[in-house]
## 1
Amino acid sequence: MLTFLMIGAHPDDMDLEASGLAMRMKEKGHRVVFLSATNGNAGHMSMGREELRTRRLKEMEKAASVFGLPYDTLDIDDGYLTADLPTREKLMRYIRTVKPDVIITHRSCDYHPDHRACGQLVCDCSYMVGVPLFCPDVPALRKAPVILFTEDRFTQPAPFRADIAVACDAFIERKIDGVLQHESQFFEWLAYDGNWTEVLNSKSHEEAEGILRSQLRRRFMGPAARFPDRFPTGTQFGEVFQIDEYGGEMTEEIRQAMEG
């Protein structure tokens, strides 16, 4: 059994980019843990931080129920995630407790400062996770986890590279169901921030949900359209990941578990 630890900066980040893989791995008998570094308490146009924090953690629990997976948070305030030593120690202890074979996170060239910090923190832990005198209260790992990055569209310092491709057709409806548990984001904040006029002007929650489902289906078809040679013929919905050279060596066992 392999253990996959998916570390996003916010609740819903890994839901969007890796929940298809997560459900696929669970179905194969592997262990999957979701971790949100922040509590997501900045992403709203009208709610206060504490009210939003409470709401987003409840939404996180609902998504976890849909995916059938544990979903945890470091409970750092949204927008305040930094790649400093105290946060590195906090994340290090969590990683060592979970003992993952694979960690999935953001690249550190993302548009959002929390995303960048999250990716940097994971990379900063990549070697130190095996150093016994760093955070000596939690036993060091004897084997460095493989580190994979989720897809982004940024080209500096280098474009994303699709090293691993995972077909998610069998899980797409559950993936969308899980993502839409984050109602404060998709029905409210992201619609406001992105000026999704169809969602904002919808006459009911059901109408808005139908629009969002169509948007998400188009989004989740993107990887197979952008990297058709990486997927089995006929794949419509997929997820792609880049191998980070700072992590442990990608093995054929892990690759087969993910892609096979």
## 2
Amino acid sequence: MLSWPIGALADRMAARGLLTFAAACAAVSLLIMYLWPTLTVFYIAAALNGLALSFFHVTLQNLIGTLSSPDDRARNFGNFSLAGATTSFAGPLLAGVSIDHVGYAWACLITGAMSLVVLVLLATLGRHLPPARPKAKTADKAGMVIDRRLLIMLATSSLVQLGYDLFQFYVPILGHNLGLSASAIGGVLATLATAVFIVRMFLARLVDRYPGEKLLMAVFATGTIAFALLPLAESGPTLAVLAFLFGLGMGIGIPLTVILMYSASAEGRSGQTLGLRLTANNLVRMSGPMVFGAISVTVGISGVLWIIAAVMAAGGVMARWQRSVK
């Protein structure tokens, strides 16, 4: 929820300090779960990790846009998203194998050690990042939210995030119901990340060739099909195939909405625009699992997955509508 004001900071403050703070929060969030594995500490750790996520995402996305020209922006965002896809592949796989071999506590410690690498990089190479811009414009928040096209872009961005998160939320549940191990479930999620990596290699070419709204329609179409077929999965390999299909389509959704939002932002206000996007996304990330989890109690896992498929189809309709809104 703090992503919007964090975006304002990203427009004015040096990226090095913001990223250092984010890495420290991430490291501490996982370290305290290793040292004091209690439910209260887990809540504190989740809040710290969410804070780190917001600072990382907004600052890095704004930094990529700032360092890019209009001609190479799509390519640079595509390369940036490839790095994200790589970590999405390595993260679940590393976590699953660590849990199976050394337990949950050590898995937290191993994952937290990744943030130390970030801190070292920032300490040694951070001086090359752009300096602070204290005179950057302050956005008129009211003016931003009344823009009709921006509202539609925020809605479609949030639905892309919702679909991506809910897929990763329900696949482990389905895997558990099928009797899969933590390593096998991590492997399924790694399959998703592999597909995401593959499709993001072509992101720049796709953006150059097709309108962004048309690409979003294809993203939602793939999400609709994958969610509709998930209840029919009866084995780990079937889940992996659906995860791969989902990743091929939905994999470009998140970086695509970042590119569209950055391109639509006013000069000196890109950080706030991207922060507003992440705030809207986090609203659905916060409420989505709770709302659809409650629905699943009534209609079951299969029923809720078909409902999500319908929501993804509605997102496709909204993306098509976006093409005609000026």
## 3
Amino acid sequence: MTTEAPFVAGPHEDEPHDTGINNRLNWLRAGVLGANDGIVSTAGIVMGVAGATSERGTIVLAGVAGLAAGALSMGAGEYVSVSTQKDSELALLDKERRELAEEPEDELEELAGLYVEKGLSEELALQVARELTAHDALGAHAEAELGIDPDDISSPWNAAFASMIAFTIGALLPLLTITLVAPGARVAVTVLSVLLALAITGWASARFGYGASRRAVVRNVLGGLFAMAVTYAIGSLLGTHV
């Protein structure tokens, strides 16, 4: 005869629900996007220049310029994008605060209605809405109505720095590889190292984002291979005619 384990409310060990998931996802998105862009764009630049010339100084100059411009561009772009998102979230929360202060009963009915739409009976939905409102009115309404956690607002600076740092780290791989390896093997070694790095970032993005690893890896690798092939072909063509 077996006895059932007592019910304990809360997440199970294999799926912890940590706080700050919104900012963590923003960091992940900015970091993975920055690393991938750093690897692919810098590899494309140095491969294109390597296709046109074998001069190490020219390749290094082009790669460093691409790294600096790309890192600053990624950081600025992330800051502007996430700042806009943050402004929207704060504006929606301010609106919700005003409505809770001016129309508390209407807001309670609205919250209960949302739980009814999710499958609760009207009686239970109203009870849940009242208890959650008494505990944390803004948090309950913001989550149910807006999908926003007032304690986990997006951080534009975090996203910007994550993107810049990840871009720089990603860009250093093809830049160092193509400049340090002997001229006869630099293209092949750079392609292989870039594809390996893209496979790792693809796997990491899927691992931390709970996505499909194989699909992410294939997508990253094929995209990087295509970019390098196109830029190398353009560099080779222009190098013989310019």
## 4
Amino acid sequence: MQDKKSNKVNPGNQEKEEGEKRKAIRRIEIKTRKLSNQVFSGSYHSAFKGRGMSFSEVREYQYGDDIRAIDWNVTARLKTPFVKVFEEERELTVMLLIDVSSSSFFGTQTEFKNKILAEIGGVLSFSAITNNDKVGVIFFSDTVEKFIPPKKGKSHIMRIISEIYDFHPKHVGTNIAEALKYFNNVMKKKSIAFVMSDFMCASSYKDALNIASKRHDLVGIKVFDKHETELPDIGLARMVDAESKKEIWVNTSSKEVRTNYAKWFAEHSKATKELFGKCGAELVSINTSENYVIALMNMFKKRESKR
């Protein structure tokens, strides 16, 4: 905001905006830390720690061993059952790939999508450092906007939460393939990767997703708004694409228009879920009007049951 007389930034307004920003980030810290400590930490450990395993040795099968651990090649060669022994890796790396394109700055319910993403990112980050894991972030639009290398510590997590909450991208579009390719290049060691987006991407990211999910433990977190699933009946309305800036007039009073739009969104959502499934990755869908805690807990429990 500028002072009309001097045409300079008003220090008072600037200080007020900074103060409001600090308060908002503090609220996110308190909320996400509490959720992580009271709800998520144990579930996070159960859902992901078992995935960070490295092969140690083989030994003879003992009563009670999981038959899925049997090494069939050694068993066939030595004519007696042997099982693979794994050691849990002491340190894992969590990467957050966060969509900061213009479509994330939208919401008609309690919060904008980008604010929900900030909270979810905070919860996952605090859960990770509670288990002594490193956390890093890749912010992307139609290009990679910023990369924060994985580190440990509260100050690092607070930097991440601050960046997520108040990040100002230079570009407006979405290119998930570009983000995944960059991720594959900078992260050589296997990590747990959360791709957080509304997945409203015009270009294909199938190949990049397939490669990333084979190298890493990958989970997609889709955040969407209620009015992205269906159009409200508000008559003739001017609509603007947040990324392309294309404007069109839509007759929302038309039942056919509303039905076709709802059908398109449902088909797009189904295709996204199927794509993740075919690539061996998971996808969690979260509505901005719903409690994301429930969705994340269900995801953790589902992963734990598959171990």
